[in-house]
Amino acid sequence: MRLIANILSIAFHPLLMVTYGVALAFASTYLAVYPLQMKLLILSGVFLMTAVVPAIFIFLLVKYGNAGDYALTNRRVRTLPYLLYVASIVACAFFLLRMLLPFWLVVILFGTAAVMLIAMGINFRWKISAHMIGIGGLIGGIMGIAQIYALNPWRGFIIGFLIAGCLGTSRLILQRHTPAQVYAGFGLGFTGIYISSLLSYFYFFI
Q1: d(CA 77, CA 58)
Q2: b or e along 1-39 (b: 16 or more beta carbons within 10 Å of the residue's beta carbon)?
Q3: Contacts with 92 (C-beta within 8 Å, 6 or more apart), sequence order
Q4: What residues form the membrane-spanning segments (predicted)?
Q5: Using alpha carbons only, how large is the chain's radius of gyration in Å?
């Protein structure tokens, strides 16, 4: 069970969720008409900025003794990685803006940065689950965009909630979080990104 829990925790690591979200946007919205080369270029840039760069930074922190382990188990060492991740997401948002991607996708990224800043503040007092923030935000983004474009991706919702349930269970099996920390992480991610997606919709009426 612990092996499966570790695999799920790696496959749905918080650093990968932005890349997954952009890939889903390319696969399930009108962005699917983009040429394959353009999609790969954008996804490569997103992956580099929001996954590779923060991962290298965390590696260096652990190597030089400024963080306990790669999972950042100690909440007190999460501030610097969170700040870098927020900066990476903001840089990625401007990258997507320069690539002329739709405004709603850029707003969702800024919403993700805001959620991570809130999570960083919470971590000064309490260890909220970053994994559940990630999967909750992904599902919240899907629901928000589905509402904007009057879509009903019910299969996506089922798969998303199943993954969220398995991931939350994995974090409990690995004893990384308490149930309250898992639920709070999912709630923060889902609510923050869902609201962000709706704000991008209201922008068009301003």
Answers
A1: 10
A2: eeeebeebbeebebbbbbbbbbbbbbebbebeebeeeeb
A3: 18, 45, 46, 49, 50, 109
A4: 12-34, 40-62, 82-97, 103-124, 131-150, 156-174, 186-204
A5: 17
- State how far Cα 47 lies from the chain centre: 12
Instruction: Read off the pTM.
Output: 0.91
Q: Could you tell me the two tokens for 59? A: 């590696």
Grade residue 181 by pLDDT with cuts at 50, 70 and 90: very high
Name the band, by pLDDT with cuts 50, 70 and 90, for residue 155: confident
User: Which residue blocks in the chain are alpha helix, DSSP H?
Assistant: 2-11, 17-28, 36-47, 53-63, 79-98, 103-123, 130-148, 154-173, 179-203
Please work out, in degrees rounded to the nearest 5, the angle formed at the alpha carbon of residue 161 by the alpha carbons of 2 and 198: 135
Tokens in use for 96?
């997507």
Mean pLDDT of all residues in 145-172: 88
The predicted-structure confidence for 2-31, as pLDDT tens digits, reads as follows 889 889 999 999 999 999 999 999 988 889
Half-sphere exposure of 161 (CA within 13 A, CB side): 6
Kindly tell me the burial class for residue 60, based on how many C-beta atoms sit within 10 Å of its own C-beta (0-12, 13-18, 19 or more).
exposed
CA nearest neighbour of 84 among 65, 67, 102: 67
Percent of the chain at pLDDT above 70? 92
Q: CA-to-CA distance for 30 and 143, rounded, in angstroms?
A: 16
